[in-house]
Amino acid sequence: MGRRIATARDRAGLTQAELAAAVSLDRSALAKVESGSRRVSALELARIAEAVGERIEWFVMETPAAIVSHRNVAEPAGESPAIDRMVERIAWNVEFVARHDDAFPVPSVTRLDRPGSMAETERAASEARRMLGLDSQAPLLHLSAVFGDLGLFSFAIDMGPNSADAASILLATGGVAVINGHLRVGRRRLALAHELGHYLFADEYTIDWRIDDKDDDYAWESRIDRFARALLLPTEGVERFWTDRRRDGDSVRTAAVKTASTFRVDMSTLSRRLRELRLADDTEAAQIRNYRTTRADIVELNLVTSDELAAPTLARVYEKAVLRLYRHEMISSARAVDLLFDTWDEGDLPELPELPESAVWDFV
User: Is this prediction's pTM over 0.85?
Assistant: First the structure.
């Protein structure tokens, strides 16, 4: 517990003196707690948890054995403690629900070999699309639902502008992914596709912002990014769609807006993918990266808009499992709301039938 307290304090950016003052302890006493030579009372632990922004169970339960991966485009080397805490909490909750709900899905998924080149990465993306039941041209829609069929349960939570794009944990059975709902829809989808790569390749435990500055580490993350782009923008489908638009006389901008809308990606992702497939040169790719879909585009081009993975979004199979536990009275209404991360109120829960008086003997 002392080690966990020290980790939480460090993650919160507090010195021993600052945390000790916040919880009315001597600094020397806190130092002994962290070294394991002094016990900590329940009240002291509660005050420490509040001061560092952690939940009580974080100090007494180990994080599930897992792979954690982060993406932070704005600041690749920056820490992201908020998403660390959230993905840990979600992992605990999912494992709790899976243990107590016999109907919770436990899909069996075939892991993919870790690609060693960009060509192998493209083939891995094609295989992943086949696993998802997609052909070589169809847009990949409703990511949370279809990834859930492979056992990756998705949660979109608004983590703010300074947090990582996403984090994922590979559990003993299945896995969970947390997407920063503060992002725009295209980047949310790309982040989740990226986490599916980590899930299917079953990486060893790693946290991207803690890795050493090694070329192979960054090359691996680049291949995962390539996997995500190829998953959302399949070669054959994009080549055909883009070529048809240009042949029909669409300008580069109009073709880009239509393509981004059809495959539901952001312009930066589309720009890189078109460059990878040699459908756009450097100049055109730079132009496409700066394009923005306007309201006029949506009306005049009859585009279909989507706010997929808008925060807060919980995996539907997880929500159903929590409701089953509540209906079977295995958890209280307060516990159900907690498991639903306060995205529901107690009034949103279904009414339970009143038990007859004789039912008391079932509990005595």
Answer: no
